[in-house]
Amino acid sequence: GCDKQFFNASVQYSNMDLLVDYINKHSDEFGVTVQYATVGDYFQAIYSRNLTWEIRDSRDFLPYSTEPFQAWTGFYTSRSTLKGIARRASSLLSAGESFFTQYVQKHPSGSVCKCKALKQLQSLRWAVSEVQHHDGITGTESPKVTDMYLNNLMSGMFNVKNLMASIIFDMSTAKKNGEVYSSVYPKDSEVHSCHTLLPFETKKSLAQNIDGELNYMTSMSRICVIERCIALCVNVQVQSSVESQSTYDLYILVAISGLSYRKYSVKPLDGEQSTFIGRSIKYNRRDVTRANQQSRQLFPVVNNCYQVLFDPNTNLMHSITERETNQTVQLTQEFLEYHVNGDTEKGPISDNYLFAPNASAVQVSKAVGLEVVSGKLVTEIRQFFYSNVTSQDYKYAVYTRMYTVPEGYDGKLLCHRIEQEYSVGPLELNREAILRTSTNLNTKQLLYTDNNGYQMQKRPFKAYVNNTVARNYYPMVQTAYIEDDTTRLMLLAERAHGVSSQGNGQVEVMLHRRLWNNLEWDVSNNLTLNDSSVVRPVIWLILGTKAATNVLYRTSGLALEHRPVVMFGALPADKPKQPRQLQQNSVQDSSVTVPPNLHLQTLSIPGWKYSSSHAEQLRSIHMGKQKQGDPDFSRVLLRIRHLYEVGEDPVMSQPVMVDLKSLLKGLGSLMTVEERSLTGTWDVNTLKQWKWRTAQYPSKGFFNSTKASENFLVTVHPKEIRTFFVYFQSQ
């Protein structure tokens, strides 16, 4: 790998120059010449060989195995906390980029310094890019390098939050010495008791109209949340918090248009006013090893989409019924641990990279506690897993939430997801923790997972002579599912995990790892993953027919990844608008919404000076004319992605025609559109894409990319990403 050999590039090139010169001077003897080459040079050489290529049916090369007991499937889960923060940071960057772009276009004379704003965005751009290193987000670095990544991510997130706060202040004509209280994680934010209004704003970075919920801790049980533009209380629920007896969980239902924001105020109630408080029922802890299966009396938890049955004899989930089709799936969940070896003298070891279990996973809890908190917006089922009936502390917990959406809201996505948050750890040494979900679906051990969060891959179970368990693990970047002929169970995750199907109707997700071994390489580089943290990953479950889940899961995945950004602060007490004035809100006027099978992936102001002609840009660099000038704030980078694959859904998989001028009218009058290559580097009109010879398509040649028409209409085909530079009329 030579991963760490290139800190000093000039030394490397000086040494390679000597080798290149020597080989080329003896080319007759060696039969070869050597030159420095770009990736383009490499592919040109391959293309000119005129070979016929095999098609792999969209299959990737995973999992990697370097030896019979060295399956590189552990890094899918290593350093789960870093994986989660990296995903959150990427989402926040998207929100910050779009918010700044909207601000520059709608408020060109605003008081926020654009150059400083660009530097704040660049700090998070750098951190998010840096952690994508193959020894970064994979969790295969030493603890001090992990800390560096985390510090850079947190610093960049802080900078972008500050930028967004500055924009809010300027757009709200707030006092410049006002304060904004913000937190990277919603769970870390607390609404404190106050005698005046505590305003907060929620910003949506997703260009789709999706209603959702916010969840925060508060010290008040009697509370009102007011949407400031209509001066009305919105739907909220307060319930006892599992974190502390002195705090409450506050749930708020919000409806926000694409790429827009809303203002809310929190105020304590007095007099006879009251807030709906969730009702809690606690069940006795149950010994799951002695459960009486004969006297089973199940109890239901129901919303408009699902009925989930729980077994009071075990306090475990029993089944889920999808109410529209009345299809019931037997479904149970349990935590297990794989025990692994830490001594190289005794056999294969697990480490940051490798997963090598000693045997099948073993059950970790013999007793389960249960509490059900019922409310008008959400019902939360809290399960606590103990090593035995008398244990004082639990090591595992599941918080399952089912949402009930009042009339007047589009609750399709909220209703159709069963949200689960897990608490796992701290683990004992050389343990790998999984959540196994077992169903009565006849899946034939066939699993589907996404590749790079982009394309679904079929993962059939394969029997091997050695290390079968580990070699049937695959990465779930966000999505995995199992299915039979009629029904599909989907899992959507807010961070990457390893996932496998070790039995018919089963899917297991690796949630956490804690390892130590005496392998010399691991010890010398501190790569033993002695991670004693507690992790809190979130997974959404969606159950239904294949057709129904096809429609739901793409948009649900976006909603999970791009949750609203919430900013607390002391804002001026604006005079509340009357309800009839709501549609005149400038925030709504600048909203950007795409069809449900598209995703507005990028809306940003890159800032870099760059010629639209890539050849001219290269000449400037080669001639030393590339200078660090003032940033360019006139160019906006736009990417639109089709969410669906060909044939995945009869409606959603159709090409979509988009009128860019209409789509972006909330930002200003669109004047010019340049279609670019994916990176923005090339004008697509100058590109000739290679057509490769295969057995199915024996001819080869070139074809030109499609381009935006002069009337700003573009067509986006399944799984296509189209990239543009767009320019607006100066204001």
UniProtKB/TrEMBL annotation:
Its cofactor is Zn(2+). GO terms for molecular function: alpha-mannosidase activity; carbohydrate binding; metal ion binding. One of its GO terms (biological process) is mannose metabolic process. It is an enzyme of class 3 (hydrolase). Its EC number is 3.2.1.24. One of its GO terms (cellular component) is lysosome. Residues 70-153 form the Glycoside hydrolase family 38 central domain. Belongs to the glycosyl hydrolase 38 family. This is Epididymis-specific alpha-mannosidase. It comes from Pitta sordida (Hooded pitta). The lineage of its organism: Eukaryota, Metazoa, Chordata, Craniata, Vertebrata. The gene is Man2b2.
